[in-house]
Each structure stands twice: as C-alpha cells, then as structure tokens.
Amino acid sequence: MNLCEILGIKYPIIQGGMAWIATAELAAAVSEAGGLGIIGAGNAPPEVVRDQIKKAQKLTNKPFGVNVYYMSPFVEDIINVVIEEKVAVITTGAGNPGKHIAKLKEADIKVFPVVSSVALAKRLARNGVDGLIAEGMECGGHVGELTTMALVPQIVDAVDIPVIAAGGVYDGRGLIAALSLGAIGVQMGTRFVCATECTVHEKYKEAILKAKDRDTVLTGYNGHHVRVIKNKLTRAFDELVSRNASPEEFEKLGAGKLRIAAVEGDIAMGSIMAGQIAAMVTKVQPAQQIIDEIISEGKQTLLDLQKFF
Predict the structure, then answer these.
(1) CA-to-CA distance for 292 and 157, rounded, in angstroms?
(2) How far is Cα 59 from Cα 284, in angstroms, rounded to an integer?
(3) For residues 286 and 179, is the Cβ–Cβ distance under 8 A?
(4) C-beta separation of 96 from 119 below 8 A
(5) In the sheet where 216-221 sits, what is the strand order?
C-alpha cells in the first residue's frame, strides 16, 4: 500500500501530533510541504481544537489531521468536532478508539492509532483501524519499551494493515531504514519542533538545538515513562524514584509541566519532550526545507545502497 495514495499527500511523512506544540501553523506548513501535518489536541477543549482546525483550513487546502488524546476529558466532543469539520485523518494515543471507528469511517475519516506493542497493534487492527503508527522508545514524550528497529518489523509481520514507523527518525536515512523494515512511511516529531512555523517557545527550540546525544532521559514510574531533555525537573523525578514515591507524587510533579515549557519557556522545571534524535537537530528551518532535505537524502541513500547489491 502507498501512504501517499491513502492520505492524498506527496511524501510519506507525517508530523507528530505534539500537545502544546503541534498547532495549526505547523500542521498547515507540513501539509503545504507535501507531508501530513497534524494538530495536537491534547487536553484542549473542543472550541480550541475547532479554532485550530479552522485556522489550518485557511492556511492550506491540503489534507491534515488531528491527534486525539484518549485521556482527555473532552474526547467525545473532539471526535464530534473532527467529524463536523471534515478532517481527513486522526491519529490517536493513550487509549483505544474502537468505539468511535464506525462513526469516523462513516464520516470518511481515516484512523491511525499510535502503538508501542504487538498485542495492542493486533487488537486495534481487529477493531478496524486504517493503519498503525508503530512508535519506538527513541521518541519524545510517552514511550513504550521497544526500540523502533525491533518494534516496526514485528508489527508489520503481525497485522495486515499499513504501518508507519515513528521514533528515532531524523532524515532521509531514517526514512529509507523505516521503509526497509516494512513501514509505508514515517512519523516525525522532534525535528519539526524546530521548524520555523512551529510556535513553541523559542527556549524550547534552543534546548533541542543545544542537546547532545545523551541529553534525553526517561522519567516516570512502572511503565509510565516519558522521554525528555535533562533539567531540574528530571532530577526531581529521579529523587522520587530513589525514595520509591507513590504514583500520586509523580503525577503531581508532572502535572502541567509540558505547558510551562512549551508555552512559557520554563526549561528548568518544564517538561522538554524530545526524542533521541534531538542531538541531530542543528538549526531552525522552514518545514518545506526539512521535507525537501529528507526526500533528497532518501534518494541519495538509495543510490548509495546499490553498491551493496
């Protein structure tokens, strides 16, 4: 299957639906550049998401999507909004969209959940989703336990629907690697944070630009882990781990921390979610340049590989 044909896009590249970061401006820019831009709904109320969709519709006439966060208290309302606004596709996380699939399909909206295990992938495939985003633990934000290179081929072999690879993808080499594992495209988040059109606080972008190869760490507890850039907040999480703190203490410490980093620019006590490719991001550039570079590098990578076969 061809992701470009499925989604009506030029290149098999999806931008991650990052809460507080993936706004209409970024989503529209990525779609205009030939990928699929995604608006991150997060915990935003339905009227905010509707405004973002309408803004994106004014900025581009190309397909874009919305990421629906299933732990949001507004899930039902958000589903209604994406249907009413005729969004092309939704990606989902932190829950099972099964109960909404029939309703979304009736509205001709494609559903691509993010998964981090084979078991979840099989369950969602049986529920009738259009495809899956297999996300390895190299990614920023909430992560599973398997790496992208191990996870993607296992999910590809386990289901008979399209699979998109996410986690640890930065350039054309990563795109070709994902395709070689059986994926039909990639989802990228961290690199697009440093797109010119991304409205995240400049200090957030600076933290990514300054990151070194070992500067992202996992915080959290008992399988509830988040990959972020090291700062005072991560050291506070480490202290909770060292004294075997309760889940409530972890949740209290983490509450609202992504917002204060992404919106207010607090990079000391804010949660700077970023993937392990953060060290590879060296500049802020327009989304069009990012995608053009990826495609050019991908073509060169294919040429370079021919000498081995």
Answers:
(1) 30
(2) 21
(3) no
(4) no
(5) 141-143, 224-229, 216-221
157 class by beta-carbon count within 10 Å (0-12 exposed, 13-18 middle, 19+ buried) = exposed
- Length of the chain counted residue by residue: 309
Q: Parallel, antiparallel, or unpaired: how do β-strands 224-229 and 216-221 relate?
A: antiparallel
Which of the four pLDDT bands, split at 50, 70 and 90, describes residue 46? very high
Q: Which residues contact 102 (CB under 8 A, 6 or more apart)?
A: 128
Residue 223 in this model has a pLDDT that exceeds 90: no
Sign of the torsion formed by the C-alpha atoms of 204, 208, 209 and 212: positive
* Cα separation, 216 vs 228, whole angstroms: 5
Question: Cα–Cα distance between 192 and 15 in angstroms, integer?
Answer: 7
Q: Is the pTM of this model over 0.70?
A: yes
1 three-state secondary structure: coil
Place of tokens 């327009």: 286
pLDDT in tens, 241-261: 998 888 889 889 989 999 999
CA distance 110 to 82: 11
| Phi, psi values for residue 21, rounded to 5° | -120, -45
Alpha-helical segments (H) within the chain: 3-7, 24-32, 46-59, 75-84, 101-106, 118-126, 148-158, 172-180, 190-193, 202-210, 232-242, 247-254, 257-262, 287-305
pLDDT digits (tens, 9 = 90+) for 153-193: 999 999 999 999 999 999 999 999 999 999 999 999 999 99
